[in-house]
């Protein structure tokens, strides 16, 4: 079960997703990492609290997203509390992300500044294994990168090896365009957020097995 929560960013709160404002002008893409604010668990027993951290610089194929909504998935709770073991702290959960594109890399072709987009539970893979070549990156067995609590293989230059990913309980995120989804026009962004994990988890097998109404 998942619900969407509105995140807070640089202002007191984001405008609702239904607010029809003009897309922001694209600033020059910074070659430096950018500051971000989030909510992190510092241990398995501590509550989520404000946490300042750094996102990597926007690379040639990266999309920078101002996070407006993030679903609350039970996986977030399990990970924050280390109930599945293997959690690295501090941990910023959240993998049902909806937001607005604020910057794009020089080689990005699928997205433009101002567009509404989503990010699910993955932000990277090796791209070279048999699964990746078939478009099944979720089965990558070499270098899968999850949205949080995972080694960030595209960490900022000069950062310590093993820099981890931080999720959607935050103000912004930088993601390879191949792991970003366009939000259909007219779709409620708050309602769309849980579709990125709970929704697709249910829908995928129904589609795979061609389940029909009434079965």
Task: Give a summary of the structure in a few sentences.
The chain has 215 residues and is of the alpha+beta class. The chain contains four helices and ten strands, in the order E-E-E-E-H-E-E-E-H-E-E-E-H-H. The chain has a single domain (2-8, 33-197), classed as Alpha-Beta Complex (Quinone Oxidoreductase, Chain A, domain 1), CATH 3.90.180.
Shape assignment = globular
Mean pLDDT: 87
Strand fraction equals 25-35%
Intertermini distance: 23 Å
Element-by-element helix/strand order: EEEEHEEEHEEEHH
User: How many strands?
Assistant: 10
Q: Which class do the helix and strand fractions yield?
A: alpha+beta
CATH superfamily label: Medium-chain alcohol dehydrogenases, catalytic domain
Number of helices: 4
Radius of gyration (CA) equals 17 Å
Task: Outline the fold blueprint.
Blueprint: E1 2-6, E2 34-40, E3 49-55, E4 62-73, H1 74-80, E5 97-104, E6 116-119, E7 122-124, H2 130-133, E8 145-146, E9 172-176, E10 181-182, H3 189-192, H4 198-208
Antiparallel strand pairs: 1-4, 2-3, 4-5, 4-9, 5-6, 6-10, 7-8
Describe the structure in your own words:
The protein is α+β, with helices and mostly antiparallel strands and 215 residues long. The chain contains four helices and ten strands. Strands 1, 4, 5, 6, 9 and 10 form a six-stranded antiparallel sheet that branches. A two-stranded antiparallel ribbon has the order 2-3. It has helices at 74-80, 130-133, 189-192, 198-208, and strands spanning 2-6, 34-40, 49-55, 62-73, 97-104, 116-119, 122-124, 145-146, 172-176, 181-182.
């Amino acid at each position: 079960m998942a619900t969407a929560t509105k995140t807070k960013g640089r202002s007191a709160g984001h405008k609702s997703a239904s607010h029809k404002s003009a897309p922001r002008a694209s600033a020059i893409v910074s070659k430096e990492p950018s500051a971000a604010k989030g909510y992190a668990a510092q241990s398995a027993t501590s509550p989520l609290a404000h946490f300042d951290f750094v996102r990597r610089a926007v690379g040639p194929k990266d999309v920078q997203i101002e996070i407006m909504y993030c679903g609350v998935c039970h996986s977030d709770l399990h990970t924050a509390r280390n109930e599945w073991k293997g959690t690295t702290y501090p941990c910023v959960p959240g993998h049902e992300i909806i937001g607005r594109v604020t910057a794009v890399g020089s080689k990005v072709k699928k997205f433009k500044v101002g567009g509404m987009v989503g990010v699910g539970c993955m932000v990277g893979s090796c791209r070279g294994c048999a699964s990746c070549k078939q478009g099944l990156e979720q089965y990558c067995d070499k270098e899968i990168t999850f949205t949080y609590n995972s080694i960030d293989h595209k960490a900022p230059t000069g950062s310590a090896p093993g820099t981890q990913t931080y999720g959607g309980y935050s103000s912004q995120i930088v993601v390879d365009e191949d792991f970003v989804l366009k939000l259909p026009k007219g779709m409620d962004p708050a309602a769309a957020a849980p579709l990125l994990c709970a929704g697709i988890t249910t829908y995928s097998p129904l589609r795979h097995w061609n389940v029909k109404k009434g079965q």
